[in-house]
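User: I'm putting together notes for a lab meeting next week and I want to include a structural view of one of the chains we've been expressing. I don't have a solved structure, so I'd like a prediction I can at least talk through. The sequence is below, exactly as it appears in our construct file.
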Amino acid sequence: MMHVHDEVVLEVPNGQSFVEEICEIMASAPYWADGLPLRADGYGFYKKD
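Assistant: Thanks for the context. Below is the predicted structure for the 49-residue chain, given as structure tokens.
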């Protein structure tokens, strides 16, 4: 795993996980931040916006 400021780069074997699943997990607010609007975008490859 690699972390770049507000980005996460994961090395996952093919077929192990889906980008949508990872984005859903990352957009889940922790219990202490209920109501905090979070959003995540993902790609099947590293992409710098």
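A couple of points you could mention at the meeting. The longest strand covers residues 2-4. The chain has a mean pLDDT of 82.

User: Perfect, that's what I needed.
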